[in-house]
Each structure stands twice: as structure tokens, then as C-alpha cells.
Amino acid sequence: MPTHYNPEIEAASPEYLRAIQSAGLIKMVRNCYDNVPFYKAQFDQIGLLPEDIKTIDDLKKLPFTGKQDLRDNYPFGLFAVPQEDLVRIHASSGTTGKQTVVGYTKEDLDHWSEGCARAIVAAGGRRDDKVHVSYGYGLFTGGLGLHYGAEKLGALVIPVSSGNTARQVQILKDFESDILCCTPSYALVIGEAIKQAGIDPADLPLRAGIFGAEPWSENMRREIEKMLNIKAYDIYGLSEIAGPGVAYECEAQSGMHVCEDYFYPEIIDPDTLEPLPDGEFGELVFTCIGKEALPLVRYRTRDISALTREKCACGRSLVKMQKPKGRTDDMLIIRGVNVFPSQVEHVILSLGMEPNYLIEVERADNLDIMTVKVEMSENLFSDEVRRIEEAENKIKNALQSTLGVSAKVRLVEPRSLPRSEGKAVRVIDKRQK
Ligand code: DLL
Into which CATH architecture does domain 332-429 fall? Predict the structure, then answer.
């Protein structure tokens, strides 16, 4: 049974990969210079000509692109092809500002689908599997991304989209889905619904899940694996670069292999903008060396990750990115201390608490106050008040020692916190920005 979708690339030698990357960068810079006035102006400003780019090492000569550049050129200003060559657009939800629009040619869709097909195979998926897609369909890239990846592999797609959880459970059971694709937070909701329906997950054929679109900790992985009786794999991507499948996990479950033949990754120090060595955490940056419609140059993702190149047990040679810790813009500053929501998740789950939590931040008398609400299990809920207080104190102490800042902890009734069908909202920050 093949374990790689495209072994020629996924297990390529570094020299072969470099040759592909250099050729891709040269073609891309020419495309940007000739067809995107924004990039022509940027290159002119630093006196850079397309012929100055000879190998992938010349990447560092190029300027960075940020989310604001996409917004300033809203909706189609950074596209490098005429509209008749586009076959699809997607858009980000725009919760943190104006939405950003991304476009694809037929070839772009083909490459993106291949990234998702690689991800499905890396998670143990095969042509004879049924792939249950519960990411949202529509302008969000999750649903259609995995959908076309599964089709490219030749698997049978079940395009459920997100929501209507009782129906999801029925389909998992009746259609005998083998692989579930959704956000990790929605996987938890589906897991709860399976339990409530009195179904033993061991009786379902489901073997694996491909979960991403939001940060999730190793403890969350174990929780989901236990709850659904499956192996849970991480998948990373962002609409600006393509969508899901920019990077994906293999059976080693120790970081995600980046499709570096299409999307060239770098890690930079977000303050100095200098590239950081392998293994160091910093801001992840991508250059779309294999894209026609929206060829972004050194796009700053704001995600915090690290790149590692050790030999992987799966035989893939593609560089791995570590699970993103979070985004620079999601990082909370509590009384001067940096806190990522994923650290809070790690602490709560390592104490064996339920995986449903919410972080609320407010400011009183010029002081930041962080309250972490955690749902109780049914058992703890029916226990003595003293036990509940003990559990609260245990979480409070663990948070203090891990984060280096104190938090209030409130254990709340089972099923009282909001559930998510897509990306979970884990933080409510009521401070005035
Ligand atoms: O979330 C694409 C996607 C869909 C990825 C389905 C994986 C699965 P956007 O809506 O543009 O695209 O959001 C991109 O989500 O910059 C990260 O901050 C976050 N993100 C995506 N995957 C992961 C992951 C899709 N595996 C933003 N771990 C990115 C942590 C992730 N964060």
C-alpha cells in the first residue's frame, strides 16, 4: 500500500528539491514583476530586476508582504492573471478587519488539491476510503480544499460540511466514514454527540481524523483520539497561500511536512525580520513559488512555529513545521506577560479536566484580569463543593507556574460553554484596545 501520494517529491533529495524551488522562484518573480503593479513598484524601489534572482538563496533579497497589502489591494489588486484565467475565489471571514480575497487558476487548484491528497495519504488514507468532510464549505477554504484533495486521490467524498451534529453522527455510522476532516474543536463536539447517542466509537469504522484551521495542543490530540477511538493528524494552511494542505502530519505525528515544492517556508524574527535558524520559534513566512493567480512573496503569516529537518520515520524529506503555538495577534499580554491560549489549554488538559474552556480578559483599576472558565465533568459536578474548590485551586496554581501570571479559575456546569462548528472562539478580551 503506497504511503506517499507523490514519492518523487515527498521523498526527494535536497538537491532535486532545491532545483524545483529555484526554478519556481525565478518564474514567480518574473510573473510578479510583469503582472502585479504592486510588486513591480516594490521591486523598483529596491532596484531589483527579475534577472537578479538566480536560485532560491536569492529569496532574501525580496521584500515581505503582509495582510495589509492584501487589504490595500482589495479585492483583486494582487492577482497576476486576467479574470478569465481564474476558476475559483475564496475569502477569509474578515473577523479582524476587511476580508481578504484569494484567487486560483486551474493549475493552482490542481497543486492545492495535491497538497490535500498528500495529507490524506499521510494520515493513512487510501483510494478505497470514505472521506467525511465536516469543514465548512463556501468561501472558507476548509471544505472544498479537503473535498478536492480526496477526489484527486480517488477516495469517496462525503461532503457533509459543518453543523447539524446529530446528522454528522448518523452519517458516520450509516455511511461508515473512514476519515473525518474538521476543526479539532468540532471533532470534540462530534465526539460528545456520539457518546450522547449511546454509540461506542469502537463500533464505528472511523480510523483517522485530519484536523486543523486552529491551534490545538498535544493534550487535545490525546483527548480527541480517546474520544473518537482514532488517530488524529494535524493539517495546516491559510487561504492567502492556498488553504489546507500547505503542511500536513504523517504517522510520526511530530510536526507537519511542508509542501515546499509549492510553498517555500522561512522562520523570521518578527521584530528584526531576520531569518532564524532551524529549530528556533519565530514567525512563519511563505513564498508561493508554485502559484500563478496570487503569487505572494515572503508572506508574513503571523503564526509562530519552527522548522526542523531531522530524518523522519515516514521517509519524507520535506521540511517539517512544528505545531503553531498561536498567532502573534492572538497572543494576550496580561500584566506585561505574554500568554498564548494554547498554553492555557495545555495546562487544563494535563490536569485531566474537560477540553471545553473559555478565557475572559478584562481590565479593572488599570489591572488586567484573566478568568479561565473550565467545564466540569458530570462526576465532578455532582461532587462536594469542597472538591470543586480543590480542583479550581489546582488549576490556578498550575496556570500560575506555567504562565508566570495569576489567573482566576471558575469551574462551570457541564455543557454550559458555547460549542463550535468551525474555528472555536477561546478568548473574549473585553479590554479597550
Ligand atoms: O484555516 C485553512 C485550513 C482549513 C487549514 C482547514 C487547515 C484545515 P484561514 O481561514 O485563512 O485558513 O486561516 C488561517 O488558521 O494562519 C493559522 O493561524 C490558523 N491555522 C490553520 N491551520 C492550523 C493548524 C484555514 N493546524 C490561519 N494549527 C492560519 C494551528 C492553524 N493554527
Answer: 2-Layer Sandwich (3.30)
